[in-house]
Amino acid sequence: MSLQELKEQAFNLSVSDRLALVNAIIQSLQDTLNPQPNRKTLINQMRGLLKTEQSPLTDAQIQAILEERRVEKYLQ
């Protein structure tokens, strides 16, 4: 079916059918232009961002960092 024939057929549809057709066309374009990324790949990439060469901070180190930030924020 050519584009011209498709347009002619569309004009013969009811308003609700034309709206459904437009919705289907828009959905197909969104799926084509914005494909959903593979979740497994994204999760593995995020895990890679969290990896460091350093050992994790201790509770005491975290408390010291928080205390420094509070001093900077509230006392300066």
Question: What's the gist of this structure?
Answer:
The chain is an all-alpha fold and 76 residues long. The protein has helices spanning 3-11, 15-33, 39-50, 59-75.
Give keywords.
76 residues; mainly alpha; elongated
Describe the structure.
The N and C termini lie far apart (73 Å). The longest helix is centred in the N-terminal third of the chain and has 19 residues, at 15-33. The chain has two domains: 3-33; 47-75. The chain is 75% helix and 0% strand. With 76 residues, the chain is mainly alpha-helical. It has four helices and no strands.
Tally of individual domains: 2
Mean pLDDT: 89
Order of helices and strands: HHHH
Rg to the nearest angstrom?
28 Å
N/C terminus separation? 73 Å
- In total, how many beta strands? 0
Structural class, from secondary structure content? mainly alpha
Oligomer: single chain
Strand content range: under 5%
The helix content, as a percent range, equals: over 70%
With helices defined by DSSP (H or I, 4 residues minimum), what is the helix count? 4
- Basic shape: elongated
Low-confidence stretches: none
* Largest beta-sheet characterization: none
